[in-house]
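> call design_seq(struct)
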């Protein structure tokens, strides 16, 4: 019988609908980040840096790129004969076939995978946060407190506390109460969605709640454990942690990487972030190109100007083009003479010559005001923008668009242009 002290279950099946067209063809954890990474690289790197060498990655929505990216786990040194990384999609069972319907239901459907390793502890992680954390330190805390469940929490400003699941603790860090997105929070300790369970406690809770529809950790498992007198403690974390679930927070987290002294440092030797890197040629910067305070990945050719931006691999910035405060993902082409202000342009998109992105007033998006905001222009992958068009703020575009799609050559602020067959 294989025996592992702690295994990790990484929830990476989410659609990430608040990222709009960025996740129409790809799961949120597979979205590019920081020029060369994908969001899932951060929890996976945390695992291997923390000595957790057995990770089940639960996928569901648009898993192809995620599966290809993870492969057999070589970049994270997770290509092990015993343990390593295993991608766990939903599968056909003899009696019925069902999708994962909630975070806890997804874990429940993989009880057999966990039983294979007979762990003492199970670490539950989310695949869509940017942070560095030593899970071994959290495990030591869990053991020292003789806890059944440890929840990672971080202090948030009191005025933002109502956006989170909040925990209330006594002087010994024991959790006495929970509030799910409370109107009047009693504490500012927000749950980070990172849990360590003693295996038998997790197994018993999942089996008991298996009939619960859309079974979820925050809504069902944690309250169930609490009501049954399970010893639960809060592990306070004070490092950098960002939920990149909205376009605004995703854009901000990328922009923070290029600060003079970045709050989140990708260049530290002792806590590397690993990723699956393709073999790409070096970058090329033309004689009259200008690059200021930006991240530029391999294989990118810059003939124009780039200011305060994060540019992915194999991107082309045409002659005379000016890119500011933007994220441009792998393989995108920015045509000659373009002006791009505060845009997120997804992979393999082609922006024709002399386009102007990010003009006009900051008016709310008509179709999805809560998604397409922050004054951003968001363009989904594989899109085509014809030459010479002007695009306003809080806009979304997806698909191969033509000049006919832009009345008078303009997409006004707050408008959405999704071609037939594309997902919004």
């Amino acid at each position: 019988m294989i025996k592992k002290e702690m295994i990790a279950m990484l929830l990476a099946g989410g659609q990430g609908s608040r990222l709009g067209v960025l996740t129409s063809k790809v799961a949120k954890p597979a979205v590019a980040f920081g020029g060369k990474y994908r969001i899932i690289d951060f929890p996976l790197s945390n695992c291997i840096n923390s000595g957790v060498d057995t990770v089940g990655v639960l996928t569901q929505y648009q898993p192809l790129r995620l599966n290809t990216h993870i492969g057999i786990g070589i970049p994270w040194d997770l290509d092990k004969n015993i343990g390593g990384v295993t991608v766990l999609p939903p599968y056909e069972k003899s009696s019925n076939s069902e999708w994962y319907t909630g975070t806890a239901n997804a874990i429940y459907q993989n009880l057999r995978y966990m039983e294979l390793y007979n762990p003492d502890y199970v670490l539950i992680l989310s695949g869509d946060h940017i942070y560095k954390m030593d899970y071994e330190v959290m495990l030591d805390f869990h053991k020292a407190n003789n806890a059944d469940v440890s929840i990672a929490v971080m202090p948030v400003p009191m005025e933002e506390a109502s956006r989170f699941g909040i925990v209330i603790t006594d002087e010994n860090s024991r959790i006495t109460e929970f509030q799910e997105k409370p109107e009047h929070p009693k504490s500012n300790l927000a749950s980070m969605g990172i849990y360590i369970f003693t295996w038998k406690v997790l197994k018993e809770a999942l089996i008991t709640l298996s009939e619960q529809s859309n079974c979820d950790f925050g809504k069902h498992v944690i309250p169930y454990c609490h009501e049954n007198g399970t010893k639960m403690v809060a592990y306070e974390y004070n490092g950098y942690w960002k939920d990149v679930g909205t376009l605004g927070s995703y854009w901000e987290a990328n922009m923070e990487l290029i600060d003079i002294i970045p709050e989140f440092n990708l260049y530290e030797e002792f806590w590397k972030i690993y990723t699956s890197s393709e073999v790409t040629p070096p970058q090329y910067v033309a004689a009259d190109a200008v690059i200021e305070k930006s991240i530029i990945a391999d294989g990118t050719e810059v003939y124009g100007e780039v200011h305060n931006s994060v540019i992915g691999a194999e991107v082309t910035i045409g002659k005379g083009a000016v890119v500011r405060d933007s994220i441009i993902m792998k393989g995108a082409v920015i045509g000659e003479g373009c002006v791009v202000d505060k845009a997120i342009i997804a992979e393999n998109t082609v922006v024709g010559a002399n386009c102007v992105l990010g003009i006009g007033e900051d008016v709310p998006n008509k179709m999805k005001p809560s998604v397409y905001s922050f004054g951003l222009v968001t363009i989904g992958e594989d899109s085509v923008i014809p030459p010479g068009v002007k695009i306003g703020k809080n806009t979304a575009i997806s698909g191969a668009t033509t000049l006919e799609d832009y009345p008078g050559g303009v997409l006004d602020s707050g408008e959405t242009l999704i071609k037939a067959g594309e997902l919004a």
